[in-house]
Amino acid sequence: MTDLELAKQKLNSDALAFVIVKDGAILRTGTRDGIGELIETIDALGDATRGAVLADKIAGKAVAMVARIAGIRAVFSPLMSQAACDALAADQIAFEYDRRVPLILNKRNDGPCPMERLTQTLDDPRAAVDALREFVRARTLRSSG
Predict the structure, then answer these.
(1) Domain spans in the chain, listed from the N-terminal domain onward
(2) What is the DSSP secondary-structure string of the chain?
(3) With bands split at pLDDT 50, 70 and 90, how would you rate the model's confidence at 144?
């Protein structure tokens, strides 16, 4: 079984938000919606993510930019935006999806997901991830204050 097959299987069987696999071993799984836990995980794992694969429940451009920063070599998602495909292709990162959509929508389905909107005009992965970190930090402060 390839790393990507293992990541897909684990994502689907355990109803997870994301799975990171490298060299046949599951490095980390996530359960929270949104991009925050994925960014925390990438930060915690450091260089261990170089050459790993990622399976994520929903992959928009934000997830693609995090994958680029982390050195991920392949990404799978049941639902992937065109912007994610384009961002991954820009770094020759392999990707697979069950369904491709023009845009990841917000929870009300009446506009773009906030993370998709935030990264829409950003082509530099470092700038995109910095903006995402700030977004997550501000959201966390609002919800705790």
Answers:
(1) 3-144
(2) --HHHHHHHHHHHTT-SEEEEETTEEEEEE--SSSHHHHHHHHHHGGGGTT-EEEESEE-HHHHHHHHHHT--EEEEEEEEHHHHHHHHHTT-EEEEEEEESS-B-TTSSSB-HHHHHHTT---HHHHHHHHHHHHHHHHHHHH-
(3) low
